[in-house]
Amino acid sequence: MPDVHTLGGMMDRIRALLTVIEEGSVNRAAVRLRITQPALSRQMQALENELGGKLLERETSGVKPTGLGHALVKAMRPLVEGYDTALAELRRQARGERSELRVGYLLSAAQSMLTPALAKLRKSQPEVKLKLHDMSPREQIDGLRAGELDFALIGQEGVTAANEFHSARLCSLHVCVAVADSDSLAARKNITLKELKGRDFIGVDEDQVPGRNRWATALCKSAGFKPRFVVVVDGITNVFSQVVSESGVTLLPGYFEKLQHPGVTFVPVSDEKARWDFIVLWQKGRASASTRALVEALKQVAAEMNA
Amino acid sequence: MPDVHTLGGMMDRIRALLTVIEEGSVNRAAVRLRITQPALSRQMQALENELGGKLLERETSGVKPTGLGHALVKAMRPLVEGYDTALAELRRQARGERSELRVGYLLSAAQSMLTPALAKLRKSQPEVKLKLHDMSPREQIDGLRAGELDFALIGQEGVTAANEFHSARLCSLHVCVAVADSDSLAARKNITLKELKGRDFIGVDEDQVPGRNRWATALCKSAGFKPRFVVVVDGITNVFSQVVSESGVTLLPGYFEKLQHPGVTFVPVSDEKARWDFIVLWQKGRASASTRALVEALKQVAAEMNA
DNA sequence: TGCCGTTATGCCAGATGTGCATACCCTCGG
DNA sequence: CCGAGGGTATGCACATCTGGCATAACGGCA
User: Fold this and answer.
1) CATH code where residue A24 lies
2) Alpha carbon of A283 to those of A113, A138, A295, A298, B66: distances in Å?
3) Domain check: are B177 and B237 in the same one?
4) Are residues B85 and B69 in the same domain?
5) What φ, ψ does residue B139 adopt, rounded to 5°?
6) A167 touches chain B (CB under 8 A)
7) How confident is the model over A88-127, as pLDDT tens digits?
8) A41 CA, D30 C1': Å apart
9) How far is the CA of A278 from the C1' of D14 (A)?
10) Are residues B19 and B78 in the same domain?
11) Is the domain of B196 the same as that of B229?
12) Which residue, of B59, B94, B129, is where some domain finishes?
C-alpha cells in the first residue's frame, strides 16, 4: 500500500482519475496518459488513501466510479480545466504575448498624445485589447506596483518611480505659471522664474501628485530662490481656487494654457531650463510585442508633436 | 538550474509562490511552509523555468512580484482556494459526513411514504440538507448511476438495478387492474389474475418505467398465461386513455386505487402472489450517518403503514 | 480447462526534492 | 572603509517517490 503522506502530485493523480473515469478503464487511461497500467493503478490507490475512501468500483471488465468518485469529478473537473487554461494564459504572457494592455493615464494631460498613439497601435496590432483607466498619477503608480496596470502615462511625477519600471521620456513641454486675473503678472506675454521670487506658492497634495512640489522647488532653486508654499491642497481644481483667493502662484505643465479656468490666467515661463517632462512607465520583464508597439507609437506621436 | 520537465508538483510550487508573495520574503515564507529557504528558493526557480518568465523581483530586502507574478496570483489564488475547499469537502464525504442528501422519488408513488420519513429524519438529524427531485423511475436510476442522486425511491422497476446499489424493500402493496368503466369487470369488488387471460394488455414504455412490463408478464405467467401487449405507450396517463379507448387492461400498484381517472375503474386483484414491492436504492460505499438515518426512517414509516 | 481480458503486486533504477553548509550580494552603521 | 547582518543562490549528499518491467491474481467465456 503506497504511502499516505504524499500531498505533492495530488493534482496529477486527480487528473489521472478523471481520465480513468472517462475511459472506464485503468488500462486505456494508462495508454492515454503515456504511463504503464501498474503505475496508474498505484496512483489510484494513493488517491483513495489520501481521500480516505474508495473512488473506483473495480470490476472484471474495467472500473466505474463510486459515489465519491462521481463527486470528485463534479468538484474537480472545472477546477482542473480552469487551472489548465490559467496556466496556458500565464505561459503565453510569459512569452510576451499579452492579449490585453492596461493603460493608466491622466485625461487632461495625456489625451492629446494617447488618442493618436492608440490609433497607430490599432493599425499595427489590431487584435490587442486595450483597457484605459483615467486615474491620478499616484493611482497609476500604485496600479503599476500592484500589477494592475501595464502602462502609466504620467508627467514629472513619474520620475519618483522611474527606477522601479521601464521608462521613456516622451516629450518635454514648456512650463507656465498660474496667477490670478487681477495679478500684475496676468497681462504679461511671458515671465521668468526669477520674477516669482517672494511669491506665495500653492502646493498640491503629495499623495495625489507625488513629486510635483519637489519639481517646482527644484525649478525655483535653479533660478536662485526657494519657493514658499503657503498652503498645500488636494486636487488640481482646488489649486486654482487658492490661486484666486490667496493671490498665490503655482507652476504647471504647459498644456494647462489651453484650459480655461475662471479668474485664473496662465503665463508661459520663458526660462530655457524650465521644462516639464512627460514620460511613460511600463512593467519590467520581457516586453511583449504589443508593449513595444505602444511605446514606439507614443514616441512617434511625441516626436511629431514636437516638430 | 533545476530541471524543466517536472510538471508534477506544479500546484505545490504555485501555493509556495502565493505564500512567498504574501510574505514578501522567501525566508519568512519558508518558515511558514516548514521547509528551508534554499528548498523554497529552488522551487521558485523551477516555477519560473516552467512558466518561462520571471515571477519575482529579487531585491536585497526580500522579493516582490513582477507583472507576471501578479498575474499568476490573480489567476491562481481563487483556483487554489477552490481546490482546497473541494478537497476538504471530498474528505468529509469520504468519512461519511454528507451535508446534503439528494433524493429521487416519484411523486404519485412515494409521497405518502416520503413525507413522514423526512419528518422523522429532520428530528434525528436536523442539520442535514435535502434535495428532492420528482422524476421518473428511469431518470432516478440514471441519476444514481451518474452520481447525481444519493437515493432513489422506486417501485418494482428498481429491481433491474438493485445489484448495482444498496437496496431495501420498504413495503409490498397489493395489485390492482385498470379497466374501462364500461368493462364487465368494472363492477367487481375484486378479481383474480386468471380472469385477465385473453385480454388486451396496455404496456408502458420501457425507457420510462423499466421492468414494469416484465413484472406484469411475470405475474400473469404465475397465473398460467402470457399477456398480450397490444400497444406500448409512454407516460402513465396515456395508458389510461388506451384503457378506455381500446378496452384494454393494465396491472398497476395498489396505490392507484386512490387516484381518480375519468372513464377508468381500478379493481383490486385478489391473488396472494400479486404484490408490488416498493424499494429504496442508495449508493454503495461507506454510508453516512444521514444515509443510514433516512433508510431507517423509511423502513419505520413503511412498517407503520403496513400495521 | 485454457485463453484473454482486467487490475494488483514485487522489485529495481532513475528522477525529484530536501536539508545542511556555505557562497554571494547589498545596505547600514561605526 | 570595513565588518555585521539582513537577504537569496548554490554545491552536495541523502532520503523519498515514482515509474517501468515482470508477474500474480482474478473473472468471464468459449
Assistant:
1) 1.10.10.10
2) 20, 16, 12, 16, 8
3) yes
4) yes
5) -60, -35
6) no
7) 989 888 887 777 889 999 877 787 888 899 999 999 888 8
8) 29
9) 58
10) yes
11) yes
12) B94
Does residue B283 sit in the same domain as residue B262? no
Provide the mean pLDDT of chain B.
87
Identify whether residues B16 and B159 lie together within a single domain. Answer: no
Contact criterion met (CB < 8 Å) for A285 and B67 = yes
Residue B243 sits in the same domain as residue B104 = no
Helix (H, G, I), strand (E, B) or coil at B35: coil
Q: Are strands B275-282 and B264-268 parallel, antiparallel or unpaired?
A: unpaired
Q: What is the DSSP string of B244-267?
A: HHH--BEEEEGGGGGS--TTEEEE
Domain extent at residue A264: 172-275
Say which of A51, A91, A147 has its CB closest to residue B94: A51
Q: Any chain A CB within 8 A of the CB of B81?
A: no
Contact between chains at A79 and B76 (C-beta distance less than 8 A): no
The C-alpha torsion from B173 through B179 and B183 to B187, rounded to 10°, is 30
Given a contact cutoff of 8 angstroms between Cβ atoms, the answer to whether A28 and A61 are in contact is no
- The 10s digit of each residue's pLDDT in A36-85 is 999 999 999 999 988 888 898 888 888 988 888 888 999 999 999 999 99
| Nearest-CA residue relative to C1' of C27 | B60
> Whose C1' is closest to the CA of B42: which nucleotide?
D9
Domains contained in chain B, number: 3
Instruction: Please report the pLDDT score of residue A1 as a whole number.
Output: 46
Is the domain of B198 the same as that of B226?
Answer: yes
From chain B, the residues in CB contact with A72 under 8 A are 90
* B252 Cβ contact list (under 8 Å, min separation 6): B175, B176, B177, B178, B266, B276
Which one, of B283, B83, B166, B281, lies nearest residue A68 by Cα? B283
A176 within domain boundaries: yes
Give domain status of residue A71, yes or no.
yes
The predicted-structure confidence for B150-196, as pLDDT tens digits, reads as follows 899 988 777 777 777 888 888 888 999 999 999 999 999 999 999 99
- What pLDDT is stored for residue B6 in this prediction? 57
Distance of CA B297 to CAs B65, B108, B148, Å?
57, 19, 22
A104: domain CATH number is: 3.40.190.10
Residue B160 resides in a domain: yes
Q: Does residue B1 sit within a domain?
A: no
Q: Cβ–Cβ of B90/A51 closer than 8 Å?
A: yes
